[in-house]
Amino acid sequence: MRAVRGEILHFTGDPAVAGTDALRHFADGLLIVRDGLVAEVGPADALLAKLPADARIEDRRGRMIVPGFVDTHIHFAQIDIIASPGGQLLEWLERYTWPAERRFADPDHAAAVAGFFCDELLRNGTTTAAVFPTVHRVSADALFAAALQRRMRVIAGKVLMDRNCPDLLCESCEDGYVASRALIERWHGRGRLLYAITPRFAATSTPQQMQLAGRLFAEHPGVHLQTHLAENRAEVAWIRELYPEARSYLDVYERFGQLGPRSVFAHCVWLDDTDRGRMAATGAAMSFCPTSNLFLGSGLFDLALADAAGVRVGIGTDVGAGTSFSMLQTLAEAYKVLQMNGQSLSAERAFYLATQGGARSLYLDDRIGNFLPGREADFVVLDPAATPLLARRSAACGTLAERLFVLMMLGDDRAVAETWVMGEPAWRRP
Ligand SMILES: [Zn+2]
Fold it and tell me: Which residues surround ligand 1, an ion (CB under 5 A)?
């Protein structure tokens, strides 16, 4: 048993729905961990008295302890093309993504990048992520092995592509099906790992492969499904040409049985109200990827319409088209995207989306996302004085909401002092 003392913040619901009741805050709190799980959280003065004499207490007063961040959409094979200039989505895929992803046929390259990737997530306070490897089976093996070693919660699955991509990244739809089944067998449910059927997007799969992806999703209860949806206008027009019978881009996925609980769709920029209604009704989730949408000039995500429809929403960095691993920086850009839509994002809602909201969108909120007893004890120790400017600005804040807002607008990896996974230190800032 061990305990961490400091300012503690977590959410038991969505502040947009439950208001301030959703937020649990202990200015001087104690988080007690037993066997990797949260045993209890509350005010330090009350809980310290109950601790056995030999319990290890880590003193982090002056720091803010929040649940580990949940990144609902990211590509591990795109680390080496992050910050590559020019072009919108379809050009970016041709120019940067395909050449980078081809290298993942090599298991040594895949293993080296997977290790760096997982360490970078931890350095940024991210303990759970829904990740795209490449079409290569070895790329998924490498990622799962790296995450298993670090005891992280990772959802991933080999990418499925059988058309509109270079030959070296193309497979037959049968091969994709067989390889996915083998990977599910090998990795799903091992440690904290979960498998996701991963058709890249409807344009790079034939209708046959889309059908097989839906079949895999139906055949394996408990597995996830992840893909891209309505990111860019040229992409949406292309999908209309490829699937003229579908009512909309979203409808393509629905026709092939890919909507439901545990399916997550990155971007969701160019949707209509019928699409949003179908996502809410089926339990599918949206991943809002603000830095990527700005970087590729894709468009502005509409959180108010997603909320009005009742769709589950999480935050995604979408590295490498996204420009940062940092969920704090990503929240800052989410705020700006919504400002451009005449909407606002409170700091409380933002931190909810990066933790409990992300967990809920991935159907993991019974295991991660907050500090209720029994949850897996993944958490981040944030330093509100990480930089001279942060220290100065934070010192001038009166309320918790102000301090959180300053952290998300000015914070980045430097504000992550420590990351803990399953109640054990996983990364500490030097
Ligand atoms: Zn993506």
Answer: 266, 318
